[in-house]
Amino acid sequence: MMNTLRNRIAPLLICLLIAVFVLFLIWSWQRAATLGTRVSDRDYYSKGLKYNHTLIEKRAAKTLGWTVSADLQSRLLRLELRDGNNRSVAGAKGLLRLSRHTEQAENFNLDEISPGNYQLQLPAGLAGELRAQIEFEHDGALLTRQLLLNL
Prior knowledge:
- The chain has 151 residues and is an alpha+beta fold.
- It has two domains: 2-36; 60-150, Immunoglobulin-like, CATH 2.60.40.
- It is built from three helices and seven strands.
- A seven-stranded antiparallel sheet has the order 1-2-5-4-3-6-7.
- The chain starts with a helix and ends with a strand.
- The model has no long low-confidence stretch (mean pLDDT 83).
């Protein structure tokens, strides 16, 4: 009796398992076809694993045409920042990082005196040849230039 009950239930369980699988398959296909992806950037999957790198590249491309011209008169360093269309880049955050041979680098914030024009009064204790790094950051775009100062 027990053997015949097992023989009757086994095919029913297999049919039930197949039916549940088919229902789940139909349900998942319907969700994929109607809802689509819920990603805020529609190009996310086309960028693959380089999604963050492409954002960085877009920001870096913004600075490609930028130019920095420097002028040092006594201890006053003036910098002019222009974009690829020769327009002043206003509102950038400027930083000058001075490296002495034996000491750690010192950071100085650049003051914007007019749109695209930045300046810094260098401290009196500085003398000799100093390596400097200039950084301008504007709307997530970062421009870095090296400078050699001879005081």
